[in-house]
Known about the structure:
The chain is α/β, with parallel strands linked by helices. Helices cover 46% and strands 15% of the residues. The protein has two domains: 6-247, Alpha-Beta Barrel (TIM Barrel); 257-343, no CATH class. It contains 15 helices and ten strands.
Amino acid sequence: MKIPPLQIGNITIDTPVILAPMAGYTTPPFRDICRRLGSGLSFTEMVPAEGIRRQLPQTMVYLDSYSKEKPLGAHIYGSDPDVFAAAAEIVDSLGRFDLIDINCGCPVRKIAGKGAGVALMSEPEKIRSIVTKVKEATSLPVTVKTRIGITPNQCNISEVAQAIEEGGASALFLHARFATQRHGGLVDFELMKQIKSERSIPVIGNGGITGAFQADEMIKQTGVDGVMIGKGSIGNPWVFKEINCAWNNISYEAPSVAERMEIIAEHLRGLYEIMSIKNELRKHPNKHIERLACEAFRGHLGKYLYGVKGIKKLQGNLMQMDSVESVITAVGQLMHVQTQTQCV
Length: 344
Ligand SMILES: Cc1cc2nc3c(=O)[nH]c(=O)nc-3n(C[C@H](O)[C@H](O)[C@H](O)COP(=O)(O)O)c2cc1C
């Protein structure tokens, strides 16, 4: 299936398979790996508008990126339209971003409890005002990421999507689950199809994609203009390559053990570097940042090594490992043993 490039405002996304924003996961090293493997667009982790407005150093580091990361969206949350606008102006002035994305889908109590994230879905007029004010404050395209509603009894995505488009957004990223489902469960293709047919801005579908088959099914069944991938990319950034290959009629070869190892090592070293930079900005830098980087990598590593014998033991041992290179060596040994076993 050939998928045309996607236009979001003045930004052209060559291949509309997009890395979803994921707090704690979509750090610059991971985004860069996904970009090289075929993700057409990525986003920062979720960044508070208020922290940006006040230019707090501990917030601003979440807007750090590598210069090669293009196109890149700043993914912002908050509840006050004027604070959003002030933050957008600052994000624009950094000159690093291609678009600004507004979070209207986060169900976490710390966020939604303060009227931000998915709580905004209960106030479509406020969303409209946020989009309009952010648009006035920046020349960058403005996009919104939402869910289909807070609960099945509060399914107002049609009204919300209308407010988003009329407010001036250039695209809608639609995670077709309710907030009560968090990040799992059934993805509602029917509603996705309805929203796509009701809107004239691009609608990008999100939820449950782990490979080319699901990406194609979502596009075929709903008509969305592109797909966004979250969990399916964790431990498998090659999912972008797989989908690009399918869309270009090229046969896809899964990564070799050596390639897997290279990506794991690059990812962990990059994460350590980024965490060290953030740490230095702290009033009291943590002396054990290398150990913390190893711990923070555990979620990724478990997924990278899914199905590899001995991963449970390695994960247990990781608790004791406090150096990045010792983790990389241990993973290398585990993968080596695995290949030897497979060859016997
Ligand atoms: C660990 C994790 C963190 C996430 N953080 C965010 C976030 O900060 N902002 C957001 O809009 N969505 C966030 N999400 C939701 C994803 O962007 C995506 O919408 C969701 O995982 C559904 O896509 P998937 O089924 O492909 O995973 C997060 C999801 C996960 C699993």
